[in-house]
Amino acid sequence: MEKAGPEREKIRDYRDLSVWKDSMDLAVDIYTLTRAFPRDEMFAMTSQMRRASTSIPANIAEGFGRAQRKVFIQFLRVAQGSLKELETHTVLSRRVGLLNEKQADDLGLRYEKLGKMLVSLVRSLERNGGER
């Protein structure tokens, strides 16, 4: 499996994947944002958003580690589901006033980009066959 783009470096580890790096950055930012949530949300929205955000890079890593193309694709699809879950929690957080409009909009743009990256990786894996 190779990266698209001019460098075309060989992917040796999940940590080489831009989609994993971006999803890790997103998870860190979700932890930071949810620190400002009220204490009574600790076991509700805070927990849900953190769990969904960490599930995205974790599933990318786990799928890559299985070393089978079809299984990796399955885990990437689980990561996509976690991204949609996080998006839903973000919309709800905005609607109930836990996030402001700018925070929610900024996250929405990141979710869109990350979603496109996941879809692109799945399509590339489906198209190219062979070893991961």
Write structural notes for this entry:
The protein has helices at 18-34, 45-65, 69-95, 101-128. The termini are close together. The protein has a single domain, classed as de novo design (two linked rop proteins), CATH 1.20.1440.60. The protein is an all-alpha fold and 132 residues long. Helix 1 (18-34) packs antiparallel against helix 4 (101-128) and helix 3 (69-95) packs antiparallel against helix 4 (101-128). This is Four helix bundle protein. It comes from Phyllobacterium phragmitis.
Give the key terms.
132 residues, mainly alpha, de novo design (two linked rop proteins), disordered N terminus
Number of strands: 0
Low-confidence stretches: 1-8
Gyration radius over CA: 16 Å
CATH architecture: Up-down Bundle
The CATH homologous superfamily is termed: 23S rRNA-intervening sequence
Helix content: over 70%
**SSE string, helix = H, strand = E?**
HHHH
Give the distance, in angstroms, between the N- and C-terminal Cα atoms: 5 Å
Strand percentage lies at: under 5%
Annotated CATH topology: de novo design (two linked rop proteins)
Number of helices: 4
What sort of overall outline do the alpha carbons produce when their principal axes are compared? Answer: elongated
What structural category characterises the helix and strand content? mainly alpha
How does the major sheet shape up? none
- Mean pLDDT rating: 92
CATH top-level class: Mainly Alpha
Q: Provide the domain count.
A: 1
